[in-house]
Design goal:
- The protein is of the alpha/beta class and 222 residues long.
- The protein contains five helices and 13 strands.
- Strands 1, 4, 5, 6, 8, 9, 10, 11 and 12 form a nine-stranded mixed β-sheet that branches. A two-stranded antiparallel sheet has the order 2-3.
- The radius of gyration is 17 Å and the shape is globular.
- The mean pLDDT is 95.
Length: 222
């Protein structure tokens, strides 16, 4: 299974850190955020990786190269300076991803989730990893009932930024900027999204303070 790492965001909430450094390259625990994912993907046997870039994306390409040093093959989908949002970025990268389901992960989350646990086949259009709601998202995003993701439920959970996506989820989506959440909600309404809960470590690194806390925690664990 191929993987796509979403790395095209501008990281405005991380200013001033992202004035000259793309958010995925901000360090935590002695290495860039995106490097944690790449190492976990390699350990899971995922060696074909597509990274989308936009804002100062050349820095990401220069840092990671073709992935040889990590034992993976990295290809890049460049979106210009402004980016195409999540679904638009995936739509642009589909020629690199191919017709089979692929692993999707946000570059700006940190987790101990084992990517090898993800299903390689889908009974539907997507499989989402959900986590308990963090303080910054108390209402959650989706519910989970008997392995199926629903838009409403008694216990809401937060989408972790980790998923398996079938390219057909984006069928008919025109080129240009587009969000992923509406596509997932439509598919969930039709019963076409499976899911699981991850109760281990997970952080959405959305602010300098969260990055600082993660860096301290990872440093203390060394």
């Amino acid at each position: 299974m191929k993987a796509m790492v979403l790395a095209a965001g501008k990281g405005e909430r991380m200013l001033p850190l992202t004035l000259t450094t793309p958010k995925p390259l901000l360090p935590a625990g002695g290495m860039p955020l995106i490097m944690h994912h790449l190492r976990r993907l390699a350990r899971a046997g995922v060696t074909e990786i597509i990274i989308n870039t936009a804002y100062i994306g050349q820095r990401i390409h220069a840092e990671l190269g073709d992935g040889t040093a990590l034992g993976v093959r990295i290809r890049y989908s460049h979106e210009g300076s402004t980016g195409l949002e999540t679904a638009g970025g995936i739509r642009r990268a589909l020629p690199l991803l191919g017709p089979a389901p692929f692993l999707l992960v946000n570059a700006d989350v940190w987790t101990d989730y084992a990517f090898e646990q993800l299903p390689t086949t889908l009974h539907g259009l997507a499989h989402l990893v959900l986590v308990p709601n963090p303080l910054h998202n108390p209402s959650g995003d989706f519910a989970l009932a008997e392995g199926r993701v629903t838009n409403k439920g008694s216990t809401m959970l937060t989408y972790s930024g980790i998923a398996v996506i079938h390219p057909q989820l984006l069928s008919g989506l025109p080129c240009g900027p587009a969000k992923l959440a509406p596509l997932l909600r439509t598919a969930a309404e039709k019963g076409l999204v499976s899911g699981e809960t991850h109760s281990g470590a997970w952080d959405d690194i959305g602010t300098p303070e969260r990055l600082r806390r993660l860096d301290q925690r990872l440093g203390a664990a060394d």
